[in-house]
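Worked example 2:
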Amino acid sequence: MIGKAYDRFTVDVEKGRLRAFAKAIGETNPIYLDEEAARKAGYQSIPAPPTFPFVAAMEANQPFLILADMGIDKTRSVHGEQHFTYHKPIVAGDVLVGQQRIVEMYDKKGGALTFIVTETRLENQLSEHVCDMRTVIVVRNS
């Protein structure tokens, strides 16, 4: 499975959705809620809060694709870690295109737990590289 790449996915980044996400995580910085504040801060539009790209991947069902592909019951898995590397801001109006691939798998606790590590590259509608995500899924085997 290591090296397997999944089909590309696309997610529209909408202002209302970014505002709702910001409120849901308790973000109070006006740049995440108000277009004028975002523009004054140098953004083209409302920026995505830092953890938003994972929402995009979840909406595209990315973590569950792997589990289904491997025949793993999703109730035996948890989201273990998440890392983001940003190359350019993600803002309202962007259309994100991503592709996930499995980069590592390893066991711990004598095989009781399997760790699946994925990387997802995100580009915007201009094919600009905006973010890399590294996700760790932990699967309980016993």
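DSSP finds four helices and five strands in the chain. The longest strand covers residues 95-108.
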